[in-house]
Amino acid sequence: MSEEKSTVPAWEQRFRAARVSLPDWAEDAPDRALYVSNATGTYEVYAWDRATGSHRRVTDRPNGTTDAELSPDGAWVWWFDDHDGDEFGVWRRQPFAGGPDEEAVPGLAASYSAGLALGRDGTVVVGRSTDEDGTTLHLRRPGAAEPVEIYRHEEYGGVGDLSHDATLLAVDHTEHGDAMHSAIRVVRLTGDGIETVAELDEVTGRDEPRGVACLGFAPVEGDTRLLVAHQRTGRWEPMIWDVATGAETALPLRDEQGRELPGDVSAQWRPDAGALLVEHEYEARSELFTYDLADGRLTRLETPRGTVGGATARPDGTVEYLWSSAAEPSAVRSTAGAVVLRAPGPVPPGSVPVEDVWVDGPGGRVHALVQRPRTGGPGPYPTVFEVHGGPTHHDSDSFAAGPAAWLDHGFAVVRVNYRGSTGYGQAWTDALHERVGLIELEDIAAVREWAVSSGLADPRRLVLTGGSWGGYLTLLGLGVQPDSWSLGVAAVPVADYHTAYADEMEALKSLDRTLFGGTPEEVPERFTASSPLSYVEQVRVPVYISAGVNDPRCPIQQIENYVERLEQLDKPHEVYRYDAGHGSLVVEERIRQLRLEIDFVRRHLGVPDGGTGAAG
User: Which of 54, 186, 252, 376 is deepest in the core (most CB within 10 A)?
Assistant: First the structure.
């Protein structure tokens, strides 16, 4: 064991250990790939020439870079250039082998990104979102000096996919005003304009709206089949839609025993378009299958129990996937049996497996993931309820350095997939309406009651914490459930919903209008009932808040409003502001933030430091 490893706490080792994302490869040059890694201490984009084994850092910015795409021929790396994490910027590109960056599409002003599509013939479609213009799509044909606008709507939408021959474009949109259930329009690119070919709208005029989403055109010249995700059966599952004929092909996905896959199902084309790679997500875990379109056979691909964080089918028939579990760190693996890509340096220490707990809640059974510290006896333990963001997201059996750090310090960790979470069917996700925030807190309260009554959690040492939507629920919970929690730790939260709506990026305004059933001017009572600021007088425990000063999702002013009210009421609180957006891509900054949170909790709960020891 090295000198450094013997003195650095395990939780810090997990953060500092290098990580890699699932590589994305060029359609016509599969040996050329991109991935994101924190190998230098900041998350940046890397180019990987698989034929030579060479790796090259493409971007190098103080606050990091994560959004990038390869041109189909593998000649160019496109990356999104924002300012210090504010998500507002322009696309730039750089030769795959290295060289100076250039503005990829001159003539387009900075905006929030609403997607990008790169055609094999040089066609480019750029999606933009701004407060002034809503969503706009811009087409640049090969050889054209500037792009032309081909789509505009005040509601949020974006680029779906270009067909293999770059003649058709799928647009995901919410023109009907329901941001949780999108529709698809397919248009033909004609010169510098478009003409509508087909529409797929499961929302307009329906009592129970069902969403559809573009998964991609078949990767074959002249093929007009579009792979689509739909919710017709009350969950996400794929179908094939031939946009030229209108024919829809359902995919009866049943395993070798003839059983229908429960949970949500997604898919992507295999390179020959004769089969699909199916991704199945159920009860916080995931698995992979191949679906043969000729005979309808579904074949399971062997992956360990845990979570597949992404997968891709290679031209040689293998599947590469990013896998981890709560106990084991992530790596890019292959169905051929090898680890395809592992970050340089030491593998981070593992952590504690999760236990599945199901609790009866007011809206149905609630799934929680529970982890107990390795030391500290049988309990009850000081317990951290770490609430996930989204809200249309979920916690999974996957590796996460944050929960592992709390475990190292002697805390139990409980994560709740409340109503609004994905992976449990459409009804569970769509339950989050109008009583926003309050519904999720009811489910968290049910799991809290179980945690205390079962002997897991010490009711005098219960910490409610989370980031983004989880930070919002933390502040709301401290006011709505003041007797339930000992402390609150909120990162980049919504704190004052009226001001947050006024200042946030347009895509989130669209989501909020859907969740609340209108704007703050139209339904002010709903926004007030769901705003943490409305309950700040009832907060009885110390509060810790961290915020990015450039955050476009949970903007800083609405947090300052909440903090100012805490100060006026003389409520104990601490605030940490940092120069980034909705979270940081700098490893040392992430460690600094968590160190401050742990110190805050330990001081106020009187918990001894259990996390200074080295990893085993």
Answer: 186
In this structure, are residues 96 and 74 in contact, taking their beta carbons and an 8 Å threshold?
yes
**Does the pLDDT of residue 612 top 50, yes or no?**
no
Q: Tell me which H or E stretch contains 11.
A: helix 10-16
What pLDDT sits at residue 376?
65
Q: What share of the chain is helix, strand, coil (3-state, %, to 5)?
A: 20, 35, 45
Residue 516 token pair = 């609340």
Per residue, what are the HEC states of 26-75?
ECCEEEEEEEEECCCCECEEEEEECCCCEEEECCCCCCCCCCEEECCCCC
Neighbours of 453 (CB within 10 A): 10
Contact present, 520 and 497 (Cβ < 8 Å): yes
Q: What are phi and psi of 528, to 5 degrees?
A: -65, -45
Q: In terms of DSSP bridges, do strands 543-548 and 573-578 run parallel, antiparallel, or are they unpaired?
A: parallel
Residue type, 335: T
Alpha carbons 407 and 400: distance in angstroms, whole number:
11
**Stretch (H or E) spanning 560:** helix 556-568
Q: How far apart are CA 280 and CA 235, in angstroms?
A: 12
User: 511 pLDDT exceeds 90?
Assistant: yes
Identify the residue with better confidence: 297 or 3.
Answer: 297
Q: What is the pLDDT of residues 78-107, one digit of tens each?
A: 999 999 999 999 999 999 999 999 999 999
Token pair listed for 518: 């209108």
Please choose, from the candidates 463, 458, 461, the residue with its C-alpha nearest in 3D space to the C-alpha of residue 474. Answer: 463
pLDDT of 6 > 60? The answer is no
Neighbours of 189 (CB within 10 A): 20
Assigned token pair, 105: 């599409």
Residues above pLDDT 70, as percent of the chain: 97
Distance linking the first and last C-alpha atoms of the chain: 10
Mean pLDDT, range 589-595, rounded to an integer: 97
List pLDDT tens digits, range 109-133: 999 999 999 999 999 999 999 999 9
Which pairing describes strands 24-26 and 29-37: parallel, antiparallel, or unpaired?
Answer: antiparallel
- Beta carbons of 223 and 280 less than 8 angstroms apart: no
Task: Tell me whether strands 457-467 and 487-491 are parallel, antiparallel or unpaired.
Answer: parallel
Are 431 and 350 in contact by the 8 Å Cβ rule? The answer is: no
- Residue whose pair of structure tokens reads 């999108």 in the numeric block: 182
Model confidence over 134-153: pLDDT tens digits? Answer: 999 999 999 888 999 999 99
The band of 181, judged by pLDDT with boundaries at 50, 70 and 90, is: very high
Whether the link from the prior residue into 380 is cis, omega within 30° of 0, is yes
**Structure-block tokens of residue 444:** 């968290």
- Encoded tokens for 295: 């005979």
Which residue is associated with the tokens 């916690």?
A: 395
Residue whose pair of structure tokens reads 């005029």 in the numeric block: 205
Backbone angles phi, psi at 421, to 5 degrees: -70, 155
Closest CA to 531 of 495, 579, 575: 495
